[in-house]
Amino acid sequence: MDNNQIKEIIGSYLDDITDISVSGQDCNFSIRIISEDFNSMSALERHKRIMKLFSELLQSGELHAISLDLKAPSEV
Q1: How far apart are CA 40 and CA 2, in angstroms?
Q2: Domains located in the chain, CATH noted
């Protein structure tokens, strides 16, 4: 798993990404997303939805840890 693959997974789910940055390697990543899609979601709902995208990879062990920073543009 690499940074571009992570971005592709997220890009396939979110329609309006203002900014996305992914850092890390192997199986540990930090992801920062700013998206209009988060406007109507609570912080918990944002995390649940993004983590769900990676649930199979986390269960298989291909990913070990993901740190998320998820914001709407108005929160930046």
Answers
A1: 30
A2: 3-75 (3.30.300.90)
The pTM assigned to this predicted structure is 0.87
pLDDT tens for 41-59 read 999 999 999 999 999 988 9
Which uninterrupted H or E stretch holds 30?
Answer: strand 28-35
Q: What pLDDT is attached to residue 3?
A: 87
CA atoms lying within 13 Å on the CB side of residue 3: 9
The whole-angstrom separation of Cα 8 and Cα 22 is 11
Token pair 């914001």 is found at 71
Statement: residue 1 has pLDDT above 80: no
Largest Cα span, the chain: 36
